[in-house]
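writing this on my phone so excuse typos. first protein, seq and then structure
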Amino acid sequence: MIRTPLRPLARILEAREKGENPDAIERENIRRRHAEMQDKSRQRAEGRLLVLGGFFLCAFVVIGARMGMLATTEPVEPLASAAGSAIAMQRADIVDRDGRILATNFDTHSLYAQPPQMVDPDAAAEGLIKIFPDLKKERLIKDFTGKRKFVWIKKRISPEQKQAVHDIGDPGLLFGPREMRLYPNGRLAAHVLGGAGFGKEGVNAAEVIGVAGVEKQFDGYLRDPANGGKPLQLSLDLTIQAASERVLYGGMKLMNAKGATSVLMDVKTGEVISVVSLPDFDPNDRPRPPTSGDASDNPLFNRAVQGVYELGSTFKIFTAAQAVDLGLVNPETMIDTSGPMRVSGFPIGEFRNKNYGNLSVADIIVKSSNRGTGRLALQIGPTRQKAFLGSLGMFDPTPFEIVEARGGQPLFPKKWTDLSTVTISYGHGLSSSPMHLAAGYAAIANGGHYVSPTLLKQREPQLGPRVMSPEAAEAAQKMLRKVVTSGTASFAEVPGYRVGGKTGTADKPKPNGGYYESKVIATFASIFPSDDPKYVLIVTLDEPSIIAYGEERRSAGWTAVPVAAEMIGRVAPLLGLRPKVEPGQLAGITLTSN
């Protein structure tokens, strides 16, 4: 900065020559210098005021906008937050084949406490005990008065409970938003749906994950935002599922069974229309898995896919169908079923030591002859029998789309001897699930194709590889029908619906080896309508026993068959099957032709 001197020499000399006072020049320069300094100070002050005014204007605009937002939004509880990754809360619905809700989401709240903000911890604990009797007062007081700054109280509460906690009025009791899984039909299809729980949790959100059933099997699909919330559609029919559960529950109680299961399957698409396992549970309040004892005694146990049983004489139709398919016999071929019969030194007997003599192949199925089926199996041979049962999926867990199905590993002999061939031909020595049996009977009912059971809705038939000829399948269908009209399943006759099927009663194995003398697994495997089969129904009862005609009855013909008949009578109309009523002969009227 260049400063002008107050007494410039040139002007001083000039002023003295003219007789002027040199001091006036100094005073004038001082005045000008002061004026310049004042102008600069004023400009600096005006700039500062302008900046400060702009700052205050922006602050008032922001504050006003925030106040406007707060005034127009619904008041919510202040929540503590922490840095971390976002929690995905989205989960798609699960619906039945007609789009009816099986599982959906429901907004609720969690309850937690911040002890430093609590006014009266003792009163708060007392109030919480009245709302949640399962809480421990001593534990709450210890948490509220200790060093902890955050305490979970309840992960999920109802709106009524939330209001009751509000009424306690302690500022240290706070709520966090939650999205819970809701099963509006309660116990219906519980083993299929499985259940869901919380995974990664935060104060402001919680991740809902599947823990069993389709919820776990399709967890990735249900949580994938790319699906746009599109629901998972199952093959189940909600109405038929409800009817099946009601009938099976009544039959289980009537037959004094400890458990029961049923599978209803479309023979061409493989769609499972209903699947029931009893006892069951409410997925809204899923019990804890067992840590000891027999797993099958727990309601979480899914008998339809996890229950691996010797299914008895229901396997005999596979032996007959294979023998016909191989051209070894036809339904009219006579087989000697008389005893004694020994295989590898072991006797092969009949139910209640009966002796049927010579029987046709069809009558072997009708009478349920062990020796007759065994002699057919010896003609087939171990290698071909094993290959045929393998083509029906009897050696692997079914690909049914719930996680529990992976545990349904069939049990079969490592060394397939002649004795194994004979015993397996009538359902002993090989253990499989009712779902396996349904797939096997579907192959007979649809003309000879294996069909994989599925829980997803299908738009068209899903016929797999051919496992038997159409002629063999048709012959087997007629044999199954004859079992109902003339054999051990006479109680399966349902007016208007031609039912075919086969009974199976197998002694129940002991946990440590051997078999119980008075405990059985009773099964009835059926197809209907038998003249054009569309559905397979499997009904299995665990340890049934009733008193009929003064005797204790445990066989499938007395226990599983009546339950299956009642179920078919209930669900067939719901499936859209019209009954075929055969006209009776009018009394006193003779039909003549012109």
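second protein below, same order as before
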Amino acid sequence: MIAERLTRLRAEMERRGIDIYIVPTADFHESEYVGEHFKAREFITGFTGSAGTAVVTAQEAGLWTDARYFLQAERQLENSTVTLYKMGEEGVPTLTAFLRDKLPQGGCLGFDGRVINAVLGKSLEEIAGEKGGRVYAQEDLVDRIWTDRPPLSAAKAWVLEEKYAGRSTADKLSDVRAEMKKAGATIHLLTSLYDIAWLLNLRGGDIDYVPVVLSYLALTETECLWFVQPEVLSDEVRALLAQNRVELRPYQAFYDYAGDIPAGERVLLDRKVCSYRLCDALGAGVTVLDRPNPSTRMKAVKNSVEIENIRAAHVKDAVAVCKFICWLKKNIGILPMTEISASDYLAARRAEQEGFLELSFETICSYGPHAAIVHYAATPETDIPLRPEGMLLVDSGGHYLEGSTDITRTIALGPVTEEMRRRFTMVARSHLDLAMARFLYGCSGLNLDILARGPLWEEGLDYKHGTGHGVGYALNVHEGPNGFRWKQSPERSEGAVLEEGMVTTDEPGYYLEGQYGIRTESELLCRRGEKNEFGQFMYFENVTYVPIDRDLLIPEELNERERRYLNDYHQRVVEIVSPHLTEEEQAWLRAACAPV
């Protein structure tokens, strides 16, 4: 099937004189996850992971993806004629190096300019220019062969009330306009669905697990134009827009609007988010101010109302997860369970919570060797029974009116090996050491990541993913610009200073291919601590309230500070969560949180 699709795509390429065609994982808005209509890379390769870029030449096809998906991609690309290129691995060419090598002199690079950001598009232009060639960016060739392609989503938009958002749409628009004025911008073009949803206090359902509305926005000192499909608008949404003098325009009219911006205007946009086609549409006399959207940092720093709501959301989420772990521990080996049925049980407990909207991402419920696949998600074909032995890794979360959650716990289902306990304890130490951080204001996650990796690096071990990411408020669960990483990569911009009010996950892990995987994840709220002659100190408040499995810990390997923090944390978990549990569940929680 994949080979046949590639043959048809190559025929379209040949008709247009295209030597290499690039298919990223992207929509028109550089969203991390995309709706069904935009899954062109999945269609052309068969790889279902959320990150990857396909490259097709007349003779070969390749897929570039990161370490989270190596095992999954190897399995899904088997017999597809698509070669896996493991990004960041020694000896593996980068995407751009591959293109430089394969593009013939005078050749043509093709891509849909609406799904390639302007920064990448410019670099592709340069590669073609080096060979005396050209780019062909005006057409989506996959659309030519995808005869049963799903239509654009048009789910209903809804208002996130100010009691949840904490600030009015008017105030947010005013703040962004103030930043535009500082930058000397006369127009701000906004294509990020997360930023638009935050700015307008609106949510939707156009991407699974991400409550956003397909749309664009243009802001001037006096106008706010929202380019959106009219069928998604309710009377309540229209009333909010009218109250804030937001004018409606058709979704498809945005590029025409951009092309008509007169010479002399100064347009603020982020080339890493805006598409190549959009930037190409701007007239020669338009000045582009290329910088991050002001709303990116604004939405990352949660206001006081959001912070209180986030704590409340995590209590609800902890109740659901604690009920799940209690049920799992008491019924493993008694009731039949599989990865999918266990995941469904957890989802049902979340759905019982007041204010629950939907899951914040597809649950990772992985048993035994499956847990070594970092982003494994069970399917009917891969689903396996759970047995009263070994470990189960569950990475899950929910969107609530009060915010979004992301938590991972690795759970003993029965007897485990001593090696598993040692590795689990090492990961627990990594998790605790970062959660306990005290640091001077001005640090970023790049400064602090070593606190988490230290216990593993001491043993010559590592995990091939970031230690943490920012978390949106009923938005994308992966939100920049904050994060924890040990090195900066060109694909990411998570080196921002950690500000009070930012929420970042803390999720070190360890994975042994073919055997097991371990990860422990909680969310950390950045707080302001003492200020003295050395400067302003910061610390983290752990807002995830679920025990770390003592059945897997080796207490003697924790140092005194780690042991004290863990015991204090577990005491807080009991105090916060117990009132919402049954007597049986309370008894389990007290035992699970007993001092080590």
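The radius of gyration is 25 Å. thats all i got for now
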